[in-house]
Every structure is written in structure tokens, then in C-alpha cells.
Amino acid sequence: MTTHLSPNMEMYLKTILRLGRSDEPVRVKAIAESLGVKMPSVSGALRQLKAKGLVLHTAYGTVRLSARGRRAAGSVNQRYEVLRRFFSDVLNLDARAADRDACEIEHVVSPDTMRRLAAFLDYMTRCRMDVEQVISHFHEYLGWREAGELCKDCELTGERAADCPMPKFPVN
Fold this sequence. Notes:
Blueprint: H1 7-19, H2 28-35, H3 39-51, E1 55-57, E2 63-65, H4 67-90, H5 95-105, H6 111-126, H7 131-146, H8 159-162
Antiparallel strand pairs: 1-2
Helix pairs in contact: 1-2, 1-4, 2-3, 4-5, 4-6
């Protein structure tokens, strides 16, 4: 049975997975502190997750992920890790921005996009071509672009750069 979960419920699962790494029981208070929510909010979420067969929890007791819950949490966590790695390693975002954006996008990205993004990251680490040089040059290109300068090695030089269809996003 496929159970669609809201981003909020996915965050609860991911948090329980992270806090109970070795299948250790997790306290409701630890979940509340980790997510920055009140304990009654956690209790309500746990009731929903328990009804879907994703967690094992008794009133006033600790929480564990069921086998289905562990698979669902692992899927969310895997999406997060792939996105975070792409943002950090390829797009050269700082760790804080990569973490924040990956955490937001992990809940809405399509399975096809995730498969292709994971394949791209795998390709980057396995390909015998010099992808490191391409990624490094891309990082330089971003710096030049954000500074309003042109890359002397790329086709987008001179008057062609002004015609580049890539939008110029504001730099924070």
C-alpha cells in the first residue's frame, strides 16, 4: 500500500530515523526539540504515523520506526542527501544553504528527477572523463557571472553573452 505523506509527516519520519540511528527508541521530547515544536504536536503526528503503520508508539512511551516507516524515512533521507550533495558539490553552495534548500526540495521533487540527479552524481564520480575540471570551471563561471564578467574560455563572450538565455538571479 502506497501512503502519501505530507512534507510535515516526512520530516517527522526523517527526524525519528536520525535520532534513532541504530534502531534505538526515540523519546517524544527529543523529536519535539529537534523539530522545534511542542510535544502535543509530536503526539498528534505520531498518532497519524502509527495509523499508517509507519511508527511503533505507545502512549507516554518511546518511538520506533516500523519496517515500512524505516523504508519511507530512508527514502526521504536519500532524497535529501542527493540534493544536498548536488547543491554543495556541483552548484558550490555553502553548507548551510545546501542543507536548507535540500530539506525544502526533498518533499516535492519528482521520482524521475531524483533518479536522474542521482545518476548524474554517480556519473560525476565514475566517469573517466575530467568532470572535476568541468565542475571546477563551472564554479569559476558562476563567480564571473555573478560579478558581471565574462568567461574568456566559453562561447558566451562578447556580444553573445548579452543574449544568454540563462536568467541572472540576484546574489544574496
